[in-house]
Amino acid sequence: MTLNIRAMAPEDTPYGLALSQQVGWPHRLEDWQQSLALGRGLVAEEGGRIVGTTLYWPWGEGSATVGLVIVDPDCQGRGIGRELLSQTLEALEGYNVRLHATAAGQPLYRQFGFVAVGSASQHQGIVDPSFTAPTPGSGTRLRQGGEQDGAPLTALDCQASGLYRPQLINLLLTQGRVLVLESDTGEPLGFAALRPFGRGHTIGPVVCSNEEDARALVGAFMAQRRGKFVRLDCDSALPFCDWLTRQGLSEVDAPVMMVCGKPWLVKAGSPRTFGLMSQAMG
């Protein structure tokens, strides 16, 4: 049968959901819909049936992320993933591209020039009913984020990740829950978002300058979710991962971060990412 690669449309998301369920990923239909609304996607069709997907997000002019690269298990080994990735990278020509790779996907990505630059620890679990949130550091305080925070939080996120994502930040401010860490004078120093995802809620992005601030931001949301499921994806190299483990959020997976192009390096003194939006979107 002829393989047809075409742009993903909103009505394709239930078929993407079915594929992700086949490979054991926890996404809900709403997660697929949000992911496509923020980016673009391709589907592979064969005999009128969707047998593969990939989504990609150009963030600004120079950096992009790729995710939800899935091929029906019954159709794997026939080059479908290769064709999807090839056309995705054609659409992202000139971009530095990042993704998080499963062990099965790494050989394919290496063939397209991706190199491993680290890994992301997927921490999750039920928050202890007795969990107590750490207090924000001296000279700082937490408050609820609002639509007026779009520009400063976008700037903090871009400094930390190299990804210019105003549409993502504004979506989180209007549809999710966002906490802003600010100085006593009202200067935004960091932020974190909480939103429904998969089996429960995920915390991310988490952007701030140090682990003390990350604990305050994440801990505040964990205190809201006592006795409930929470997930957070964090750079495996950060000691913050050890704190998450001690709080009962165990590491259950650690996909490899891979880059095609120039890796992003956080400048000294800049905020950094302590929690990803998602493994797909970075």
Number of domains: 2
Q: What's the helical proportion of residues?
A: 25-40%
- Rg over CA atoms, rounded to whole Å, is 19 Å
CATH class (first level) name of the largest domain: Alpha Beta
Mean pLDDT: 96
Q: Considering the protein shown, what is the CATH homologous superfamily of the largest domain?
A: Gcn5-related N-acetyltransferase (GNAT)
Structural class: alpha+beta
Strand content: 35-45%
Description:
This protein is an alpha+beta fold and 282 residues long. It is built from eight helices and 14 strands.
Topology:
Elements: E1 3-7, H1 13-22, H2 29-38, E2 40-46, E3 49-59, E4 63-71, H3 80-91, E5 96-101, H4 106-111, E6 115-126, E7 140-144, H5 150-161, H6 166-175, E8 177-183, E9 188-197, E10 200-208, H7 211-224, E11 229-235, H8 240-246, E12 250-253, E13 256-260, E14 272-275
Parallel strand pairs: 4-5, 10-11
Antiparallel strand pairs: 1-2, 2-3, 3-4, 5-13, 6-11, 6-12, 6-13, 7-8, 8-9, 9-10, 10-14
Kindly list the characteristics that best describe this protein.
alpha+beta, 2 domains, Aminopeptidase, 282 residues, 14-stranded mixed beta sheet, 14 strands
